[in-house]
Amino acid sequence: MSDKIEKIITGLNQKANLKQNVYGHSIEVFNHFKECALNVVETLAPNVLDKAPSVEISLSNYGDFEFHLKFSGDTIVFLLHTNVFTFPPKHLINKSTYVKEDRSRGYFGMIQIYNFLSDSIKYNRLGDEGYLLARVFVNAENDFYVEGKRQLGFLYKELGKFKLDKTHRHNIIEQCMLYCLDFDLYVPPTDALNQITVQQKNYFNNPSGIATGKRLGFEVINRLKHDS
Questions:
Q1: What pLDDT shows up at residue 169?
Q2: pTM
Q3: Who's near 177: CB < 8 A, 6+ residues apart?
Q4: What pLDDT does 56 receive?
Q5: What is the pLDDT of residue 15?
Q6: Of the candidates 140, 141, 132, 89, the residue with the CA atom closest to the CA atom of residue 111
Q7: Element (H or E) spanning 203, and its range?
Q8: What pLDDT is stored for residue 47 in this prediction?
Q9: CA angle (174, 52, 130) in 5-degree steps
Q10: Residue 122: which of 19, 4, 220, 208 has the closest Cα?
Q11: What is the spatial distance between Cα 221 and Cα 225, in angstroms, rounded to a whole number?
Q12: What is the mean pLDDT of the segment spanning 74-78?
């Protein structure tokens, strides 16, 4: 057996096995997030629907790697990436004592959390854009690191300080929801709508035809004018 084959075998036994462990744990964590999201729905629904019965609060499952938390006009989409990641060598994660002590701690599963307009999902508007709220990185030891908006941009930056338990999962979901509620859909400027073509009118009449996003109003109109 050659030295190269021996190195390949060692690599498979070590790194590949580590990545499988991280991936398996990531699936468990993702399912725990789904359970927490369902708990949020069950907590909110009776309190909101009693005063605003037309408001929809629901959880929808889209296979093993995606689920949606819908609350009125907003939908938060949770996506589990199927690969395992490391950070670049100069990233603060790899400079931490926690990772230097054990390099296997620097391998992560990644959960991405996006905000979409609920109508974007309902009408299958393929051109609509979602906005990244947070990325949750979790390793095989259940230690985690979060990149995100507002509080999520600094609360969980110290890897090894917290375990990703139920309390932190709930906090991440709730922080994302609060951000969505404050992140409104802007009306496009009047000047952008002074004139439209028949083609543009047809886009407006078709719910699935015109791309919409919370900050897209002006850009979409300009794009339609350019395309026409």
A1: 97
A2: 0.81
A3: 40, 69, 71, 74, 76
A4: 85
A5: 85
A6: 132
A7: helix 198-205
A8: 79
A9: 45
A10: 208
A11: 6
A12: 96
- What is d(CA 127, CA 108) in angstroms, rounded to the nearest whole number? 31
- Residue 145, C-beta contacts closer than 8 angstroms, at least 6 positions apart: 93, 108, 136, 137, 156, 157, 159
Instruction: Say what the pLDDT of residue 139 is.
Output: 97
Q: Which residues pair with residue 146 across a beta bridge?
A: 136
Residue type at 38? L
Decide if 91 contacts 109 (C-beta within 8 A). no
Q: Which run of H or E residues covers position 59?
A: strand 57-61
CB 189 within 8 A of CB 158: no
The residues spanned by each domain of the chain are 3-180, 190-227
Residue found by looking up tokens 């110290």 in the block: 158
The 10s digit of each residue's pLDDT in 30-54 is: 999 999 999 999 998 887 766 667 7
Query: Backbone phi, then psi, for 223, in 5-degree steps?
Result: -65, -40
DSSP 132: E
Spatial distance between the Cα atoms of 25 and 46, rounded to a whole number of angstroms:
33
Q: Which helix (H) or strand (E) holds 147?
A: strand 144-148
